[in-house]
Amino acid sequence: MKKILITSFLLVSMFSFAQNESSKGVLGDYNGDGKKEYAYSKVSDCSEDCSGKCETTVYFSDKKLKPFTIKNSKNGDLYNLKDLNNDGKDEIGFYPNWCTSCWQSFYVFTLRKDGFKYLVKPILTHCIQWNDDKKLPIEKVKNKKGFVKITSSITEKEEIKTVSKIVKIK
Fold first, then answer.
1. Is residue 103 over pLDDT 50?
2. Which of 28, 31, 56, 102 could form a disulfide with 127 if both were Cys (CB 3.0 to 4.6 A apart)?
3. In the beta sheet, which residues pair with residue 56?
4. Helices (H), strands (E): how many in the chain?
5. This prediction's pTM
6. Cα separations in angstroms, 166 against 5, 50, 125, 148
């Protein structure tokens, strides 16, 4: 009976840990092999007031995928952006947390031969954009292969506004 209880406890603990780990990650096919893997992030050397190195590294459950690091980031939010460039791989978005400003770049990464690289230049956003729109700052343009719609924040006449443009992906 004691062995059954210990075994049950270990299995429940392992299942609970696996659920917690996976709930922090973002599921996607980031390498185009037809299998889903989790992307998850960890911050290093960053205090509550953003003192320190403050770098966030994105790791993958498939250890063949090389992690990549974002500087000036106190962790952040990961997004599976689906396949924006029609290469058979999901792109991954990252919106960093920071202590001192509501102005942050939204990063869009795609897997190339030499690791994860920007799909488009970082998209400047303000937290008002995230509060008002509730939409991601990049989306695939329907019926226009190879193009995305980018929505960024700007300051105009002392007001923060959003502007959108259609961009061809290289």
1. yes
2. 102
3. 43, 70
4. 2, 12
5. 0.83
6. 59, 35, 16, 6
